[in-house]
Fold this sequence. Notes:
Blueprint: H1 7-25, H2 29-38, E1 62-66, H3 70-86, E2 91-96, H4 99-108, E3 117-121, H5 127-137, E4 141-145, H6 151-159, E5 164-169, H7 173-180, H8 183-190, E6 195-198, H9 201-210, E7 216-217, H10 232-242, E8 247-253, H11 258-269, E9 276-281, H12 287-302, E10 307-309, E11 322-324, H13 331-337, E12 340-343, H14 356-359, E13 365-367, H15 375-383, E14 387-389, H16 393-405, H17 407-422, H18 427-436, E15 442-444, E16 450-452
Parallel strand pairs: 1-2, 1-4, 2-3, 4-5, 5-6, 6-7, 8-9, 8-12, 9-11, 10-11, 12-13, 13-14
Antiparallel strand pairs: 15-16
Amino acid sequence: xxxxxxxxxxxxxxxxxxxxxxxxxxxxxxxxxxxxxxxxxxxxxxxxxxxxxxxxxxxxxxxxxxxxxxxxxxxxxxxxxxxxxxxxxxxxxxxxxxxxxxxxxxxxxxxxxxxxxxxxxxxxxxxxxxxxxxxxxxxxxxxxxxxxxxxxxxxxxxxxxxxxxxxxxxxxxxxxxxxxxxxxxxxxxxxxxxxxxxxxxxxxxxxxxxxxxxxxxxxxxxxxxxxxxxxxxxxxxxxxxxxxxxxxxxxxxxxxxxxxxxxxxxxxxxxxxxxxxxxxxxxxxxxxxxxxxxxxxxxxxxxxxxxxxxxxxxxxxxxxxxxxxxxxxxxxxxxxxxxxxxxxxxxxxxxxxxxxxxxxxxxxxxxxxxxxxxxxxxxxxxxxxxxxxxxxxxxxxxxxxxxxxxxxxxxxxxxxxxxxxxxxxxxxxxxxxxxxxxxxxxxxxxxxxxxxxxxx
Length: 456
């Protein structure tokens, strides 16, 4: 009878398998990246960053923050501001995995911080790429946001002695179950973080079970994000174009939702003939195809409906029924002109986008049945009467009509939502204090460069 493997092998085998698989796949990665670049998923001029190249480390202390996409990178902004205020010599490297996140970070980064923050696309989780990235940047500490668990990256950073934090962490039931099948590997990875701050008590409990023994719940950084911006000239122009028409916004929609939105639009037009419905797809490059889809869906009911694409520079006219806002970074503009907003990703089993963006801008919130990505936030909004749940297109039309025709109801919803959005205003500062414990103490040398002054 053979002797069972030592417990360490339970973690080592899947990690070794992952390392071998990613190493073997490395020669194919350039082709994969090129194909993604053709679809707009990568920046063709910056593909070398995905190989860990392009380091330009500044002098002095450097904190590396990584978030996969738009939500994570945007929730990092108030955290960066809080850390920058208390550590004047600290510089920041922000890595993301999407082009959209990179663009919005550049647009929304406060000018006062521009010289202290650099962006790079995250290296692919290939051992050689990861080593090149870490050797070039040599971060003093690292902060991973939400649920970015890349084995090669995390273990290589740990091997170099980089103190790591996992903040705003969340683990779905499905992910927890998946990691639970590899308990040794989970303990190695989640146990590599010195600081783990979860969004909810349930997230913290799941993380502790996976090996992050010190995980605790402080709340959601997305509660503390700044209101989305809107350039005043563009806002004024859009308001003039819309006039007094009622506006339903479908924000950050995904494929499969727009058909339901088109049906709700048709039902609503029977009660609100001058309704303008704005559809803002989560991925703006879908705009032209989406416009054709919406036109075909509505043609049978209304005749060929006037649809306008914002990416072409056009504003809605009095005859515009559907305005497709296929542009990047303009949700702050759209929430400010809408009388009600359906939060995209919630009419299909995607899990929903962030409803607090609407809450901070005084736009009444409508949520579909699928809000697993923001369960705690959605439950608080619904419980406080700050949002309405809709099951399908008919319920969406009914709820939108209620809000668009009842100003008192709309004001009650927005007031309740604003209170919830403001609750966690001090969270970035509290989180910054905890992250500072991972950083070494630095003093400024006469030349102005950072020098280590002892343990932090």
